[in-house]
Amino acid sequence: MSETVLRVEGLQRHFTLPRESLFRPPETVYALNGVDLAVERGRSLGVVGESGCGKSTLAWLCMALDTPTQGKVEVLGQDLAQLSTRELRLARARFQMVFQDPYGSLDPRHTVRRIVGETLEALPQAARDTTAEIAIGRAIDAVGLRSSDLDKYPHEFSGGQRQRIAIARALVTRPSLIVADEPVSALDVSVQAQVLNLMQDLQRDFGVTYMLISHDLGVVDYVCDEVAVMYLGRVVEHAPRAQLFAKPSHPYTQALFEAVPRIGTGRRRRATLQGNVGSQTKQVGGCAFADRCPRAETRCTTETPKLRKIDHEHMASCHFA
After folding, report:
1. Three-state SS for 181?
2. For 251-290, what is each residue's pLDDT tens digit?
3. Are 3 and 41 in contact (CB under 8 A)?
4. What number of other Cβ atoms are within 10 A of residue 141's Cβ?
5. What stretches of the chain show up as alpha helix (H) in DSSP?
6. How far apart are alpha carbons 182 and 316 in whole angstroms?
7. What are the beta bridge partners of residue 9?
8. Dihedral (C-alpha) 300, 302, 307, 312: value to the nearest 10 degrees?
């Protein structure tokens, strides 16, 4: 039986905005509204959706960099919100993050040796399975860099090489889970494939589990085993990659796929979405996508759809999927 590395249940995150006026109550942003996900060991889950749908908020909660308003995040069976400061510090060896911008996520004043090793410095000696120098050397070698690079600074590397350093920093503790938030979006297209190939090689060699946050469906198609589609803080569809790409069920997912540019001169039908993305400062009844859905009915404004199984492993939240 496969082991579940990451489990998210009923996850909600609400932010209170600063009061703009003495005569107006403070507004609340409902960034996540009940997200349920699970990723098994050695698998890759892609999370897609337009900007503002809650992808990065989900990533930060899964890394315990923020606290959920409601719900829980479990990594290897441990509820992160229930851990003490010391327990969480030890647990962080098992889950790491790769950030979007390799130029901003690496301290320009530190050498590669210190950047990769700083994760180990945060762990008690008893939590390390080897010396820091050996662990750093293994991580650098795993991402295709040389030992002579250890004493260089980030400005001496290209964007792709910097992201390799960031991946080495995440890999140095031999984590079970790596959350990658748009890991190639800041890189040239010619370099993106190299980094994605590296991530796949590391998954094969080390059994790493990935949650990949992306707005690029091509990246998700290349790397991931499963895909979760988010809209306004909710997962509207979750399915194996091949199945989702072959036959998306939710109207929003269909619109995402039809919006992807394709080479060719022939005309193709595109779903027409009316209206604008709903406000995240209001909680309304019914489906969050109802105002833009070409198939919406009256009940969509009052009934809140739940993820339901359509076939063997394909789930969507549309009433008409």
Report:
1. strand
2. 999 988 887 777 665 555 555 677 667 777 777 778 888 8
3. yes
4. 12
5. 55-62, 85-91, 112-121, 132-142, 159-171, 189-206, 217-223, 241-246, 251-258
6. 24
7. 72
8. -50
Cβ pair 255, 296 in contact under 8 A: no
Place of tokens 């899964």: 62
Backbone CA torsion sign across 62, 64, 67, 73: positive
The phi, psi pair for 10, rounded to 5°, reads 55, 35
> How far apart are the C-alpha atoms of 166 and 77, rounded to whole Å?
27
pLDDT digits over 194-245, tens only?
Answer: 899 999 999 999 999 999 999 889 999 999 999 999 999 999 999 999 999 9
The token pair at 84 is 């003490």
CA dist., res. 318 & res. 84, Å (int): 40
**CA dist list (Å): 140 to 102, 263, 313:** 16, 39, 38
SS3 content of the chain, % helix, strand, coil (to 5): 35, 20, 45
